[in-house]
């Protein structure tokens, strides 16, 4: 595995002055019919001097190789001169966004879901990025998709079917993003890539089960609401019976208590307004 070696070449300004001097001397020699001297001066100028001049912009680097051997990496921005025989490859050090495609995968419980992630990454070690993998751009794309698939397989979408699940893809956004970032950092370290941030950008059930899951969520919400209504209604009925008994307003036998409880529960738990009926006779008619 290649380790990055940062080098600082000599300034290119003096070399550029030398280039201009040789260029002027060569032209002058040709003009004065000293063709051999002029040809040599211009040949050295355009073969050895000019090809060695490089400009390195901010947040860029130049990876240098000489006859197949890694020489070093120039990360300092500026104007430099390097060995003209070296091969110079530019590698950007800027942060980049990878907006992953929506992929269909099964979660921990086997439910098909659609998931996508946004990854912010940048090249940290240029030697690994250039020599450890074939194409580090493609490597980032493929490994990011693989990490998202693996993450979706180890967690359920929600805890409707797995109530013991402490982390879900839907509700554990911070924890899931942290795990995704850690896994991507491990996978991409081989290529000298640093993961700045990783977030789930899209999460939904697949279309073939989306309607069924929506109905299940609605049913769960209705059941929870009904449960709360019943608990409140039972408390109100219990309070009403206790207050009637304490105030000695009326004495009810067990049958009338059961009827009263039934009527109150119908009124309190029904989803429609109840029409009252006035009893003008006795309690038992």
Automatic annotation (TrEMBL):
An example Gene Ontology molecular-function term: peptidase activity
GO (cellular component) term, any one: membrane
Band domain ranges (all copies): 51-217
Stretches that traverse the bilayer: 12-31, 37-55
SUPFAM superfamilies reported in the protein's UniProt record: Band 7/SPFH domain
Pfam families xref list: Band_7
Membrane topology of this protein: Single-pass membrane protein
Compartments in which it is found: Membrane
Primary subcellular site in the record, as a coarse category: membrane
Protein name: Regulator of protease activity HflC, stomatin/prohibitin superfamily
Originating organism: Pedobacter caeni
